[in-house]
Write a structure and sequence with these properties.
alpha/beta
Length: 1026
């Protein structure tokens, strides 16, 4: 879980410390201390991910970007023998973020410190120690005590002033400034988590300020921890025995406090997560720990989630999270059933015709040049123009989103034409008088949505902030489109769906839940689509080769191995021996394509940022060696200070923008080509056709753009893609990376990265079976794994296999059983023996590559575990083994299990659903209540006047507070409860559009819909959780 840790230390000569030595150690570099005449060389230190220096913007102190010059200047400036030479901030980085996001977060916080105090900040990001927690990502930020300027170090920064001077100048004291720094870290970290779509948050407040009675632990420190690892005794402990005993008692009395700590960071968690959180408070008394953990697991706030996974891992959620997700689905179903946003068939037909004409005009422009070059005849061009237009799937999707339902969803594979469909839908909505707004998780996605479909768009975070400030409120005349909705977690999705319902608007979700997954908890997009229905776009329009389009469909249907085999059969999967050779092959192929098709577009994709940086450097190096790119200042190459450090650019360089900037018209991930350099200005031709001037002294978030990360590429389209495979990829990243192209994609992998299984051939030959004298001879093969451990396999058929394969001693091979064959023994009896086959090193590495890139990284929500209870699953397993009874017997009542043991069943789901319905009904029962145009005469409701956008409107409903209020009310006695009314014959609502990929779940869905229709009429006693 993300934790708050921001500790401040000082580097002082009074303790014998040197700023030069401290910086060298933290950054993993070699620095020479001029004052001492000594070199501190820590360049061989492992664990340093990134180290860099930032200075205040506009300070002119570029000299301080040299680490050796900076800290030697600090040592020379301070004269006292007890001087404080630096101030250090140690921060814990959220492990939920990826490496690139952690670096961006650290750099942003460092820049804030530099701008706030006018100092230079030297930061170093460290990865977790292999002997400790794998989540201990952290950073050290060393800040100078003096302000940095053009002429060197100036006066002391205000944080170093004495309190009496600060008070005299009416400035906050040092302690208050430190609190502000801690708060600033909380805000910048939570903003980064929000941007990444993660529902985790950190809190700088103490446990007492948060309403928790648990006594917090103390930070022991790296040095004490090292002593403790070596078996030494340390004085400082995380917690004394008395405090640990009190914490154990608190947990025994209030186990929900640990659950609150864990669920504040994630919505679905395991026993290990709970145990890890508890161990921070109760760790040296096994009996107390076990007793406290038992109480936590028995807490009524804890709800067990049970699925059909074979991993055997128990997963849990809280009532609050379960209520949120169940309420989210209930809200989505209500919106789907409300058909108040109808679009006339005339406006829909007009929009379809307009889009068809636009597509034909585009095809006519694209084919005119081909006819001129002789690549196409005039007759073929006429046929291509006549056949161009929206596909049948796109037409059905447009009709689906304009039918009037306030909840609509479109699921489309990569390159299926979702943007084209949305453009036609926008025209239909606007012709009907609706205002259309767009949103997406990332700035780049919003930019793409606006450019491709004409829908004015903002990020989800921007919309949320505006609504908080009562700005740009949506209403009954608005349609709210969310693109790339598969990347949005449950909490964020629930907030937006609630807002849409409260304001009377319509929401349209567009995306593909098989592409990049939400970083936060939940799979809201998939769950909503399964329960409300969606239109599906399966026809791939991006890839021009038929087999590539078919492979894209295979990727989208979770058949990654089949898709990869298609690319391998066409020679588009390249295996090289090591990483360096693999990168060299990618660069050679990339530049060869650039020479053959200079007018085309191409990109190199990798998952890890270190690979991206290495590939960018290699491409530039080769181009400079060929003379195609300037080298040095005399040739026109200029060095710029960017957020990622110093970068050299020349005319013709590819550039990627890493930060949204509306004035420039760029988003995080926008690509372009440098046209010319003039002073601090860079002229760039963006890939979207725009030309901009980048003021490099003001906008510094850019880097080389020959290669980029897979995450940044989602939503992009290029002619050719060159993909570097790594062990960290799963099927979702593979799907995105291998579907960005129109003409072709190649996947490259280093054999050394995927050498698992099999072993080095040590020996083979004939010998008595299992080397036991007296037994008949058989054939053996001995292989050694990476640790040198040997394993011998025996089999008569191995002799034939080894003769055919003819491997050398030391070769890497694997053996596998392919079947059995019947043989007649000398005594006349028949037996079966194994038939074998060998797998060479290349095939072995490919098999591992295939397995690695097919790993499932799908997100889940608590409702995924609900279709069947544990008792129902056991009953289903036992049913095939039981003979059919002569007559149906009355089912036995289920055992009365504790709440934490029985899991979530349908009854619990409908209870939460009924509660949400009751709360919504109460919310809209007043005279100002808003009702909607009925979907049919049977559901006729009065129409309320539209709400003025200038009128004050109710804030979104606080579900957690309402749940707590409801929980405190005791249910009426059984004898006083009203009898449930008989349920009339209600026809359940069945979604109008159901995707083919979920056809297997149709029957269960219809059954659940029927139960929900009946459940709406059952009285809610508020006790079905208990």
């Amino acid at each position: 879980m993300a934790i708050f840790h921001c500790q401040v230390k000082v580097v002082s000569r009074a303790t014998g410390r040197s700023s030069v030595a401290a910086s060298a150690y933290r950054s993993g570099t070699s620095l020479h201390n001029d004052k001492e005449g000594r070199t501190y060389d820590f360049s061989r230190r492992s664990g340093v991910v990134q180290a860099d220096i930032v200075i205040p913007k506009g300070s002119g102190g570029e000299w301080a970007l040299d680490r050796n010059a900076l800290w030697n200047a600090v040592e020379a400036k301070e004269k006292r023998k007890d001087s404080r030479v630096a101030r250090e901030f140690e921060i814990a980085l959220p492990h939920e973020l990826d490496e690139e996001q952690r670096e961006e977060l650290t750099r942003r916080f460092a820049q804030q410190l530099a701008d706030r105090f006018g100092t230079a900040v030297d930061f170093a990001i460290h990865k977790p120690d292999p002997r400790g927690s794998e989540k201990n990502h952290h950073a050290h930020l060393m800040m100078t005590t003096r302000r940095v300027g053009v002429d060197g170090l100036g006066e002391k920064s205000v944080i170093e002033w004495e309190n009496k001077k600060l008070l005299k100048e009416r400035l906050p004291t040092t302690a208050m400034q430190m609190k502000e720094v801690r708060l600033a870290w909380e805000l910048v970290a939570n903003e980064a988590l929000e941007r990444a779509g993660i529902d985790a948050q950190i809190d700088h407040r103490s446990n007492a300020a948060r309403g928790l009675e648990l006594e917090p632990t103390r930070h022991v420190g790296v040095h004490a921890t090292a002593v403790q690892r070596q078996g030494g005794v340390i004085e400082r402990e995380r917690m004394d025995a008395e405090t640990a005993r009190l914490n154990a008692e608190i947990v025994q009395d209030k186990p929900e406090q640990i659950i609150t700590l864990v669920s504040g960071e994630r919505s679905v968690f395991t026993r290990e997560d709970l145990a890890r959180a508890l161990h921070r408070y109760v760790y040296d008394d096994n009996e107390a720990f076990q007793a406290a953990f038992t109480r936590i697991m028995a807490s009524p706030e804890l709800v067990a989630l049970r699925g059909d996974k074979a991993d055997g891992i128990e997963r849990f959620t809280t009532r609050e999270m379960f209520d949120l997700e169940a309420g989210m689905i209930a809200t989505a179903e209500r919106l789907a059933g409300d058909h108040s946003h109808v679009v006339s068939s005339r406006n829909v037909a007009s929009a379809l015709d307009a889009e068809d004409r636009k597509i034909r005009a585009s095809v006519a422009d694209a084919t005119a040049a081909k006819v001129a070059r002789g690549e196409m005849t005039a007759t073929e061009r006429s046929a291509a123009i006549a056949s161009a237009g929206l596909s049948d799937e796109q037409r059905r999707a447009i009709e689906h989103v304009t039918t009037g339902s306030r909840m609509a969803q479109v699921v489309g594979v990569a390159g299926a034409g979702k943007s084209t469909m949305l453009e036609a839908a926008r025209q239909a909505w606007e012709a009907q008088g609706y205002r259309v707004h767009g949103a997406a998780l990332s700035g780049k996605a919003t930019f793409g949505l606006q450019e491709s479909s004409g829908i004015e768009s903002r990020t989800l975070a921007s919309w949320s902030q505006r609504w908080t400030r009562e700005r740009d409120q949506i209403g009954r005349g608005d349609v709210f489109v969310i693109d790339e909705a598969g990347m949005i977690g449950s909490r964020q999705m629930a907030r937006f769906i609630e807002e849409v319902e409260a304001r009377g608007a319509k929401i349209v979700l567009v995306g593909d839940h098989e592409q990049l997954q939400s970083i936060g908890a939940g799979a809201a997009f998939r769950a909503i689509g399964q329960r409300t229905g969606f239109a599906e776009l399966n026809g791939v329009r991006r890839q021009r080769e038929g087999w590539q389009a078919e492979a894209t469909q295979q990727f989208s249907k979770q058949r990654t191995p089949e898709a990869l085999r298609a690319y391998r059969s066409h020679g588009d999967i390249v295996m090289e021996s090591d990483r360096e050779t693999t990168r060299g092959r990618i660069v050679a192929d990339y530049l060869a394509d650039r020479g053959e098709r200079p007018e085309g577009s191409r990109v190199i994709l990798a998952h890890q940022r270190a690979d991206v940086a290495a590939l960018n450097a290699e491409v530039r190096s080769v181009l400079q060696e060929r003379g195609e790119l300037a080298r040095g200042a005399e040739g026109g190459e200029r060095v710029f200070q960017t957020d990622a450090g110093k970068r050299s650019f020349a005319a013709g360089d590819r550039m990627v923008f890493l930060e949204n900037n509306k004035s420039l018209g760029v988003m995080n991930g926008t690509l372009g080509t440098v046209e010319r350099l003039s002073g601090n200005r860079i002229s760039v031709a963006l890939d979207n056709g725009n030309h901009i001037e980048v003021p490099a002294d003001q906008y510094t978030a850019f880097d080389h753009g020959y290669a980029t990360t897979i995450h940044k590429s989602q939503g992009d389209t290029v002619d050719r893609a060159f993909v570097l495979a790594s062990k960290s990829m799963d099927r979702h990243m593979t799907y995105v990376a291998m579907t960005r192209h129109r003409d072709g994609a190649k996947l490259y992998a280093a054999t050394e990265d995927f050498q698992r299984g099999g072993g080095r051939l040590v020996a083979h030959g004939r010998a008595p079976f299992e080397n036991q004298p007296g037994k008949r001879e058989s054939y053996y093969v001995t292989l050694a794994d990476e640790k040198g451990q040997r394993r011998t396999v025996w089999g008569v058929d191995l002799e034939r296999v080894m003769k055919d394969a003819a491997p050398e001693i030391g070769d890497r091979i694997a053996l596998e059983v392919t079947g059995q064959e019947a043989v007649t023994l000398p005594d006349g009896t028949t037996a079966h023996r194994n038939t074998w086959a060998t797998i060479g090193a290349d095939d072995l590495a490919y098999k591992q590559l295939e397995r690695q890139l097919s790993r499932d990284g799908s997100k889940e929500i608590s409702l995924d575990y609900m279709p069947m209870t544990r008792e129902e699953r056991e009953e289903a397993k036992a049913a095939p083994e039981r003979p059919a009874p002569e007559e149906e017997a009355a089912p036995a009542p289920p055992p009365n299990l504790a709440p934490h043991a029985r899991g979530i069943d349908r009854t619990a789901y409908f209870a939460a659903r009924d509660k949400a319905l009751a709360e919504r009904a109460a919310r809209f029962d007043g005279p100002e209540a808003r009702t909607h145009v009925p979907a049919s005469p049977e559901r006729a409701q009065p129409i309320a006047p539209a709400v003025s956008r200038s009128e004050p409107q109710k804030r979104p409903f606080d579900r957690a507070a309402a749940y707590e209020a409801m929980k405190s009310k005791a249910p009426p006695p059984v004898e006083e409860r009203p009898e449930p009314h008989a349920a009339p014959n209600v026809t359940p609502k069945v979604p109008g559009v159901i995707a083919d990929r979920h056809a297997a779940a149709d029957e269960a869905h219809k059954k659940a819909e029927a139960e929900k229709a009946a459940a709406r009429l059952r009285p809610d006693y508020g006790d079905r959780f208990d």
